Amino acid sequence: MKIKSIKVIDGKNKWSESKDKLIHMVLDLGEFEEKPSNKIEGFYERIKEHLPSLQSHRCSEGKAGGFFKRIKEGTWMGHIIEHVALELQTLAGMDTGWGRTRGVKGQKGVYNVVFNYVDKDKGRLAAREAFNVVNDIIDNKNPQIDNIVKKLKPKTKLQESIRKVLKEELNEVRVPRSERVELYKDDNIIVVVPLTHRALQKYAHQCQWCINDDIHEWEDYHKGKHAVIIQRNPKKPKIGITGNPTASEIFLLAKWDNNQSSFEDVCQMLDYEFRNDRTMSDYYVTISNDINNFATNIVYYSPETGIYDQEDNFLWNFNIEINDIPNVKPKVIEIMDDYLTEEE
Q: How far is residue 56 CA from its own chain's centroid?
């Protein structure tokens, strides 16, 4: 099975006269078009074990337990994913309960899975997590329902306030001089070499590559070997045709260009349907040839291992050198290179 697309509907639509906030997922069942639930050994027992609360789903039977009856007798995976997406949202405290699954005309095994949401981002996530949960149950794996529900729970105003305060504290906290070297500072940029993992988190906290998951690599890869270049007057990120920042688009399109992700997967991750490989390739070439489309408000630099932007784009792959980064003058490059290549 694979997800072909996930889109958010907010307004009048063809699926429902009463529901205007809907997630529309197009799902290709692949081999499971010929394998409804009653033909997958143990599926019925396992889904009851992992999601017992589905007992409340009445489905077309019109009574509690009706959906489980449909699974036992045999129903298709698109229908099951629809119900699981609704239940995951319900378990996370969001009042949902409307859904429809219908075949795409003229495409065997391809289905429109439509269900309502409260929060559009959580609704999109529920679609992907429901797909993952059902696949885990098919493969006799243990889906981590509690963790998924935690991810889906909408943030309260208090949580958002705490998050804002913590972010402000992180921005204000001063890292002791013993934990960083400030190589250069002017009205436009600051250049810092972090000497501790805490300093790396402080100065590069907005970056994808940063930071929270790479502590095990700190001594070998990061410590004293990279400079963080911070623009003091950061620019707003450019937004591309998919509605995502262009730097994010480049990162995902590069995975497709390097055969690390499929055309369909990239369309799904960007939540945008390119017409074909050619249009995707043309767009990728266009945006990746302009440095303004990269996330250069903070970059991570080593004269030996390269340059990364905030989205983890490896800039040397795009023929971008350190002197192309805004406000990085020859004098600054000399200072960085002298320090970073100095033998211990």
A: 31
